[in-house]
Amino acid sequence: MLDDFTQLQSRYDQQGYFVVRNYFSDAEISALKNVILKFHQAWKQDNAQFYQQEAFNSSLITGSKYLAFDDRVALFNFISSKKMMAIIESVIATKPAFMNTQLFFDPYNRQQKNFWHRDCQYDHDVEAQKTVIHDTQVLHLRVPLFDELGMELVPGTHKRWDSAEEFDVRDERNGKLSSDSLSTGKAINLAAGDLLVFSADMIHRGLYGLDRLALDVLVFDSSADFIDYVDDDCLPDISILDKLNDPKLFKNTLDLKSMGKV
Question: What's the whole-number mean pLDDT along residues 177-181?
Fold first, then answer.
């Protein structure tokens, strides 16, 4: 683990990511795994065709569709635990807000290839992407439940545009494929208990293999315009909020939702 949380903001600003090794205990990962596996099995059964054809992730893990009340409480308490909040607030010091959760797994088809991307490319054209990467960004906090190959990131691309090589690969131009290697990529292996924090808008890709199962928590700065991305069902209601040790991460989101309805 890093000795000083004050270093984390600097590392994130410079590189767009950081890793904290052995951050969670075996007991913490075991308890989280118990909840996540319930969701994953129910989701796979309910989305069997999509899972077998192309899926590599699911979302809205905190929603009411697949998890019982007590399991949702446990998951919300993990997300807003002292350990998670210490990391979140080291990067977003003022009113961080909960956005969503995602679960990343290996594709059913072992021949399916991973791909380089920026999350913002799915919402913006190329010219807009060049602008939004300089705006307030979404923070991913990845918690691997098993040892895995991890991710490959291009350090610094949370603040700069693609090189010619990077754009050709990411956008599949000039005969390149998004699954091709990048000379600027940095592979980061992850083990159960580690925590990887990275910008959603940096160039990155997941590395398939070793039966990965990783929970991503997405957080944003309350001053940013991301509230429309938040699904109401993935937020805690009053009965759950009363059970949480520290609900402020979710209350910040609920406050933004409330302001939007005025």
Answer: 98
Domains and CATH numbers, the chain: 11-261 (2.60.120.620)
Using a cut of 0.90, tell me whether the model's pTM lies above it. Answer: yes
In one letter, which amino acid is 112? Q
C-alpha distances out from residue 3 to 7, 125, 139, 244, Å = 8, 40, 21, 28
11 sits in which H/E element = helix 6-15
Cβ atoms of 40 and 58 within 8 Å: the answer is yes
pLDDT tens, position by position, 62-76: 999 999 999 999 999
On the 0-12 / 13-18 / 19+ scale of CB atoms within 10 A, 227 is middle
Burial of 183 (0-12, 13-18, 19+ CB in 10 A): exposed
162-179 in b/e form (b: 16+ CB < 10 A) is: beeebbbbbeeeeebeee
Token digits of residue 54:
């192309």
